[in-house]
Every structure is written in structure tokens, then in C-alpha cells.
Specification:
six-stranded antiparallel β-sheet, alpha/beta, Rossmann fold, 17 helices, 57% helix, single chain, six-stranded mixed β-sheet
Length: 549
Amino acid sequence: MLEHLSVRNYVLIDHLDITFGEGFTVLTGETGSGKSIMLGALSLLLGAKADREAVRQGEESAEIAGIFSSLGPRVLAWAEEHGIAIEDGSIIIRRLIRVTGRSAYTVNGSPITVKEGEELGHLLFDVSSQHAHQSLLRPDVLRSMLDEAAKVEGLLSSYQSSYRSVRSLEKEADDLRESIRRSSEEADYMRFSLSELDAADLKVGEEEELKAEIEVMNSAEFLRESLSSIVSEMKGASSSLSSAMEMLGKAARKDQRLSAYSDRLESLAIESDDILLSLRDHLSSIDFPESEMEEKNARLMQLQRIRRKFGGSIEEAIRRRDDFRVRLEEAENGSSLLESLALRLEKERDKMRDAAEELHSARIRAASVLSKRIEGKLKMLGMASAVFSIRVERLDTPGPDGMDRIMFLVAPNKGEKLSPVQDSASGGELSRIMLAVKVSMRSADSSAAMLFDEIDAGIGGTVANAVGEEMKALSLSEQVIAITHLPQIASRATSHFLVEKEERGGRTMTRIRAVSGEERVKEIARLLSGETSDLSLSHARALLEVQGK
């Protein structure tokens, strides 16, 4: 349940703190007083999209915070899954919106995403509004509502897994057929290209190696001349080193300190002789037959032609070669590959159909029970002759959520035939149907508080009394918050908050405060007649006395 709501600098609210209790709470106020602002602030806590325009003019940021307690197992499981510690059995949700566009969203100090906030919001609050009536017109929403009430999560998950596998295999089969078709059309070209690529015996890096070798061959004369000169110079240097070594050896016999230089000079001479021998060997190797030069140039031209023809690089040519090989194999063995895939696909389709049948049966059973339950609620809400039915129609084509179409049918008056709710229910009837559906389909293990935002539109009199009684009865087991304009509903509440606009310091602001006693009488009177006359006040007192307020 929602224990406390704090709002700072949001639209027309400068600061607001409301403490909610258990049971039935109503918010009332003049049209345009700011009831929708209150709902908007709460919606932000429950994962609604943030709008920086909602920050109160002249402020840098808006902040909404809420304390929720009496958490159910689904909320606790969500918190554990997201690594959020729960202390004292409650959570604090904060939403900060800055005019810069950046925002912060936390649960017990841990940051969360808006999507995660929306997930948590659905677990904490079940919101019904005038706009929610339209959900009764959407088959996907009706299916979701029935499945949640029927507790078919496991069956639905099993079906969806098979459905995804079937779609994946169907796509694989389509892709294979298309590949085989293209491969068959291009088979002659691919065979010729594959023969050419195989014969080329491609190796990554070979082209660069050939270019380096050809560069050496083209520079052979220059290299021979250079190396000959270097060898000649090295010979002279070697002779000079030998003479220097002999003289240093004699000097070292007179001065032992020169021995170290003698050893170093000897090493230098050895290294010089080794370099000289290596250069002689390299010089003798620079002798290339003309035929070798021609072979290397021919090979380089072959590689360059293949590179240009097959993708711009040797790596790409090798990839194309391997692709041709696979596609030719597909073309040659396509029938057997398709046959094997078809067997897998049919097996998975059988599995999907079995899962769809189980899901269909579970929905049929749940629809039968829920139809009677909702119909009973409608009779309590003033639709005494109404007949209600949830129809589960079997479809020939599987979809992502099964092979069923869910329809909510109603015959509001005696003698009328069952028709989809959008075709036969008035606005007031839609309000009552929505309330009956929400209450009847509510999961037994749900701990979410219920918020009704003016779903009483288009009703009055005894029907309004019935709606008020239903909300009051519902509040005996869970927290119910209603934004209403009907005195029959407001008078049944345990707590009553008044939403008002006032001017302060030249600015308009919304405030919300608890009313009781004579103040509450005046507000009920205003709801009754739009003014606080003696007659409306008397009627308001009588209405509250009947409710024991």
C-alpha cells in the first residue's frame, strides 16, 4: 500500500505531503483544480515517461517520492531479482526530473531504469481510468487480462517457446529454399569460379611477399654493385683490424690495463669477419634467372586479377571460394536438406499445437468461471438484467500468444443478444463493466493497491451507490484510492482529501488537504448540487450519517 506521497515543484504543486491510510481514500475537487496533476505525480513513481516541462516554472527540478509498505511476494521477488535491499518491509521510490532533461529514478537508493520502474509500478498499483475503458476494445489487452486471472503463465511460456522455434525454422526453410534457388541459377558460374579459385591455391600475404621479391630482382644490379663495394671496404677494414690487434697485443704485454681493450678489439674483428662472410654469401645469391622473374610477375598478375574479380582482397576471394563451395553443396543436396528441415519443422509444429490446445482449454475454463463472476458483479452494480460472457474463439492461424481470439460480450438489457462491449455498452455501462472486470479478474495473490480515476463517468443515482459500495467492500481487504466527482462514492470513503487551487504571491498553485467534520460535509454538499445550500448540506449530512461517518 501507498503510505506517503511527497511532491516538490511539480506543475502547479510547490510542495505536498500526503499520508495515506488503509481502506478507502477519495480525492475530490472542482474541475481543473489539479486532480490530474496528483495522478500524474503518482504515475511518475510508477514508471510513466518523464517530461521536463512538468517542472514548476522557475525551478531547476521536480521531485516525487513515495513510501510503499505491506509488500506482496511479487514485489519482494522483483526487488531480490534487481538486487534491491528491503528494510522494515517497505520501499522508497524517488523520481527526480531536471529541466536539463536528465533525471534520476531510484528504489531504496538503488538506480533503476524507467522500464524497470514500470514493471514495479504494475506490481504496486492497479490503475483504472476513463482511458482504460478503451482497453476493453483491444483483443490483446483482453487476452492479457484473462491470462493473468487464469494463471496460465507456464502454459503461455511453453507455447511461446514453441511458436518462436516454429517461426525460426520456417525462416530457416525459406532462406534455404531461396539460397537453393539462387545457387541453382548461378551453379555454372560458381563451378567455374570455384575451379579458378581452387587452382590459384590462394594464401593470405602471398601478394605482399611477391612484391618484395620482385623489388629485389629489379634492383639486382644496384645491389651487386653496392655489395661488391661494401665487401671491398670490409676487406680493408679487416686487414686494418688485424694489424691493430697485433700492435695492441704487444702493448698489453707491457701494460696489463690494455688487455681489456685487446679483448674488445678481438671481438670486433670476429664480428667484422662474420659480417664480411655473410655479405659475400648474399652477393653470390643475387643471380636470378630471367624465367624466375617472369614466373613471379605472372603469379603477381594472377593474384591481382583474382583480387579485383572477387571482392578487392585475397581474404575476400578466399571467403567467396568457401561460400561457392557451400552453396554448390546446397544446390546439389538441397532436397535432402529441405526434407530434414521439414521433419524438424513438423515436429515443432505438433509441439506448438499441443501447447496451444492446452492453453485454449485453460482459457475456456477460466472464461467460464470469470464470466459468471463478472456477471454477478454487474448485477450488484445496477445492471440486473445484464448477461456477460468471455468468448474464447479458436483461430486457424497461430499467433505469438496462442491460437485464440478473446472477446468480451455483453447484453446490457433483457432480450438483447450478446455483442462485443464496444458495440452495445454505453459510457456509464462501460464504467461499470470496467469495475466489474477489474475486481473479478484481480489475482488472489496480488498486493497492488487499486486506483480508480473517475471511472464513474456517466453514472449516478442507485448505480453510483452500487459502485461506491463495491469500492468500499473492496477496501476491506486492500487499499483503494479513488478520484471521483460523485457524492455517493466520496461519502463511503474512510479518508477524504480535497484538491484545491489557490493564489499565493501572484502565482497559482495546487494543494491537497484532508477534510473531515463540517468541511467534509460542505464538500459532499458541493458534489451533490454544485453549491453549499441548506438543502445540499442537510442532504450531505444525511448521506454521511448513513455511512456512519
